[in-house]
Amino acid sequence: MAMTTNGLSSKLIPSFLRCLNSSSPSFTTPHFRFAQRTTINTTTTTIFAPPAQPEQSTINYSNDDRVYNFEDTKRLFSSVKTGKLIRSAANLSMASVEPVVDLGMWVMSSRLMQMGLLREVVLGGIKHTVYEHFVAGSDTGEAGRTVKKLWESGLRGMLDYGLEHAVDNESCDTNAQQFIKTVESTQSLPSSSVSFVVVKITAICPISLLKRVSDLLRWEYKHKNSSSFVLPWKLKTLPIFVECSPFYHTLTKPSPLTMAEELDLELAQQRLTTICNKAIESNVPVVIDAEDTSIQPGIDYFTYSAAIMYNKGQKPLISGTIQAYLKDAGQRLFQTKKAADKLELPIGFKLVRGAYMSSERKLANSLGVESPIHNSINETHRCFNACASFMVDEVSNGPGGLILATHNLESGKSLKLYVFHHLGCFPFFHICLNSFKKKEYTTPGNTTELLIMKTERGKLAARKAGDLGIGRESDKLEFASLYGMADAMSFGLRNSGFKVSKYLPFGPVDKIMPYLLRRAEENKGLLSSSYLDRHLMMKELKRRVKACVGQVPMVGRKRERPVV
C-alpha cells in the first residue's frame, strides 16, 4: 500500500525536511497535556500500564548536580562488589581489542568447534569471561535472576533471546515457543522489572520466505500504478518504502508465492499473533528488531500489520525499528507516522543508527549501485537527530512511542536537551544511551575532568527532568544500555532517581555466541568504546585498594595513647 504526503499539513513537511538538513533542533515550548497510556486486546480496550512498583534495595536517589558526577566513583559503583568490578574491567579491556573479536569469529566458525574436547574447552573459557559479562544467562531462569539482581540495584531489564535466522517451520515453531516462554517469564518477576521483550521476525519466519516477501513488496511498490500485479496474501499495513529506498535487491519480476509459501507466511503471522496475545496477557510491550535491507521490507510488513491489529489507545504494544544510517530512513519514518495518524493508530519506533554497514556497502559495491548507507557518519548523526526530534514533537501532543538507541553521546546530549527545552515532558519516551565513542575519549592527555565536561549538557537535561518530576515514579522517561556496557552512566542516572534498563541478551553459550560475535564484528567500534567505563572502574578499584590498605595496622608501629 503506497502512501504519499498528499493531504498532510503543509506546515509539517517543510519543518521536518528542514530538520533533516539541520545538525541541531530549534527550541520552542509548545503547550500540551499528558496522554493516557492505553493498549488493546483483540476485542476490548484495556489499560496497558505497569502495576505499582515493588520495593527495591535501599538506594539514595537525588536530583542534584551529582547525576553525572563521575568523580564520585564510590557512590557511582556503590552497588557493585569488588570481584564483579574486577571482572568487568578485565572483560571490557579484552573485548575492546579488535583482534580478539576477529579471533573469536575465526574460532567459532572454524573446524575446531567440531572437535568435542576442544569445543568444550573453548566454550567453557568463553562462558566464564565475556559470556558472563555481556549475556544475562542461558535460559529464562538465569535471565530472570539477572533481572532480579538488576532490580535490586535499581535497574530494569529488556529481555532478548538471542536467536539466529530460522530456516524452516520446525525451527520457527521452536523459536516462537522460546519468545512466548520469555514473555511468560516476566509474570514471575517483580512488577515493572522488565521494560520490553525483544522479538526477531527472522526467528519466526523462514529467512528464504522473508526474502521472497521483501522482493514482492519491492516490485509491487515500483509498479504501484499497475493493476496487473496483485498480492492476494497481503494484509493491511503502513508505508514500507519511499522513492529513494533501495530496490536493487529485486531487479527482475519475482514469481508469486506458491500455495505452500502462502501457508508458511500465514503460519509465521500466527506465531507473531500468539506472541502479541501473550504480551497483552503479561502486560509487557514488544520491540521488533531490524535486519539488513534485503529482508527489512518483510520485517516491516510483519511489524506494521501487527501494529494495526494491536496498537490502540495511546501507548503502542508493538514498536518497529528505523535505522538512521539508511538514506531513506527520515522519509520512511515521516510517511509511516503520518499514515498511522490518519488511521488514529499509536505507532512506536526504536530509532538506531544501524548494525550492518559493512555488509550493506559490500553488497552495493558488488552490484555496482549506490550504497543505501549515508556517505558520512555526520550525515547519519543529522538524520538520527532529525528523526528523533520529529518523533518527540509527535508523541508530545499525541499517541505513540519512541525508543532512542544510540552509541553516540552527542546525540544523547542534544536530544535530551531538545526534549526538555522543547517539550518539558512527553508520554512515552525512552532514551537508550548505550556507550561512548572511543575516538572522543582516548586522545592524549585525557582526564576524568575532560570526560565529565563531555557530559555537561546531558547532566543539565537530567537535572531539568528532575525539576519536572520525571524520576522513579514516572513512566515518561527511561534510559537503557547494553548489559555490560555504559554502567557508569546507568548508575549515575539511577543515583539521580531515573528509571534505567539494561538490554539483556540470553541463551545457551554455543547458540548465542555466534549471534553476539556476528554483531560485534559489524560493530567493532561499540566494544572499543568502553573507555570511560574502564577508566572509572580502575579508578574505583584503586580507591578501594587504598581504603583497604589504610585500614590495615602497620606492623611494628606502637598505637599511640589517645589524648584525654
TrEMBL record:
Gene Ontology CC terms, in alphabetical order: mitochondrion
Transmembrane segments: none
Family to which the UniProt record says this protein belongs: Belongs to the proline oxidase family.
Cross-referenced Pfam families: Pro_dh
Keywords, sorted A to Z: FAD, Flavoprotein, Oxidoreductase, Proline metabolism
UniProt function note: Converts proline to delta-1-pyrroline-5-carboxylate.
Gene Ontology MF terms: FAD binding; proline dehydrogenase activity
Protein name according to UniProt: Proline dehydrogenase
Boundaries of every Proline dehydrogenase domain copy: 145-415, 460-526
Reaction catalysed by this enzyme: L-proline + a quinone = (S)-1-pyrroline-5-carboxylate + a quinol + H(+)
Species of provenance: Lactuca saligna
Domain of life, source organism: Eukaryota
EC number: 1.5.5.2
Cofactors, names only: FAD
Biological-process GO terms, alphabetical: L-proline catabolic process to L-glutamate
